[in-house]
Amino acid sequence: MLQTNLLHTNSHARSVARVLAVVFVLNVVVALAKLLWGIMSQSMSMSADGMHSLIDSLGNVVGLIGIFIAGRPADSTHPYGHSKFELFASLVIGCFLIIAAFEVGSGAIERIFSGVYVATITPMSYTVMGITLVVNLCVTTYERKCAKRFSSSILAADAMHTLSDVLTSIGVIVGLVLVQAGFPIADPIMALVVTVFIVISAISVFRSSLRPLSDHSQIPKERILEMAKGIPGVVDVHAVRSRGTEAEVYCDLHLLVDPQMTVLEAHRLGDKLESKLKDAFPSLVEVLVHVEPYGYDDDVL
Questions:
Q1: Do the Cβ atoms of 209 and 90 come closer than 8 Å?
Q2: What is the distance between the alpha carbons of residues 40 and 102, in angstroms, rounded to a whole number?
Q3: In a domain, 78, yes or no
Q4: Are residues 187 and 233 in the same domain?
Q5: Fewer Cβ atoms within 10 Å of its own Cβ: the N or the C terminal residue of the chain?
C-alpha cells in the first residue's frame, strides 16, 4: 500500500510539473510581448498587463519548485508526505499578486494625479493585445482542465491567475479604444481596473489554499457514514474526520461492531470499509479505522 501511495504522489508531481513547464513558456512570451510594447508605446495599461503576465511566469517557477518538493515521498520528519508544499507555493503566488497589484495601482494613481498622459496607440498595440488574449484564454482553459484531472491546487491557483489576465487584457483593449477616441485618462484608469482584477485573483488563491492548510474537511462526513453503514456487520460509525489536499486525502474514523465479533472479523470489516472508501474517493491515500465494541463504556472498568 505504501508503494502505491508513493507512485501516486510521484505521478501527480510529474504530471503537474509538465503542465506548469508548458504554461511557463507561454506566459514568458505573452509577458514580454505586452511589457515591451507597452513600454515602447508608453501605455501604462499595457505595461501593467505585461507586469501581471510576468508575475504569472514567476508564479510558474514557484509552482515548479513547490511541486518538486511536494512530490518527495514521506520520511521520518514528514510522515504524511510533502503534498502541502504545493499549497505553500500557491500562497507565494498570491503574495506575488499582491505585490503586482501595489506596483500597478500606485503607478496608475500617480499618473492620474499628475495629469500626464503620453500613451501612443497604433495597430500594433491591438495586434499584440489580441494575440496575447487568445494565448491566455487557451492557457487558462488548459490549466483548469488539468487542475480537475490531477486534483492540483497549484494548477487551480495558476488557472485563476491566468483568467484574471484574460479579463484584464479585455479591459486594456477597451482602454486603448477610449484613448484613441480622445480620452487619454482611460489608460491609467484601465491600469487601476487591472489592479482590481489582480487583487480579486489573489483573494481567490489565498482562499483556495488556506482551506486545506487549515485542515478543512475534504470528504463529506455524510457520504462516509452512508457507505460505512451499508456494509453488513457495521453497527455504527462515529468520530469521522478527513483532511489533506485535493490530491492526497487522509481519513480516520471509529467503527462500532458487535462486542462478540472476533478481532480477525473486525479487522476484515475495517479492510472492507477502507477498500470501499478508496474506490469511491480516488484521492484518498489512507484510511485509519479504530474498531470499538458497540455499547462499550470507557468509564466502566
A1: yes
A2: 22
A3: yes
A4: no
A5: C
Provide the terminal-to-terminal Cα distance of the chain, rounded to the nearest Å: 37
Evaluate whether 171 touches 137 at the Cβ level (below 8 Å). no
Instruction: Give the pLDDT score at 298.
Output: 53
- Element of type H or E holding 189: helix 186-213
Cα dihedral across residues 51, 57, 63, 65: positive or negative: negative
Q: How many structural domains is the chain composed of?
A: 2
Per residue in 123-140, pLDDT tens?
888 888 888 889 888 888
pLDDT digits (tens, 9 = 90+) for 177-228: 888 888 888 878 877 887 887 788 788 878 878 877 777 778 888 888 888 8
Q: What are phi and psi of 289, to 5 degrees?
A: -110, 120
Q: How far is CA 296 from CA 86, 253, 256, in A?
A: 42, 17, 9
In terms of DSSP bridges, do strands 284-293 and 236-244 run parallel, antiparallel, or are they unpaired?
A: unpaired
- The Cα-based distances of 298 to 234, 292, 293, 294 in angstroms read 20, 10, 10, 11
Cell output for 173 = 483593449
- Cα–chain-centroid distance for residue 205? 6
Looking at this protein, which amino acid is placed at residue 106? S
Which cell goes with 92?
A: 507565494
**Cell reading at 49:** 498587463
Residue 160 belongs to domain spanning: 2-213
What is the CATH number for 71?
Answer: 1.20.1510.10
**Separation between Cα atoms, residue 211 and residue 204, nearest integer Å:** 11
Pairing of strands 284-293, 249-257: parallel
To the question of pTM greater than 0.90 for the whole model, the response is no
Q: Which of 205, 131, 200, 197 is nearest to 165 (CA)?
A: 197
- 301, part of any domain: no
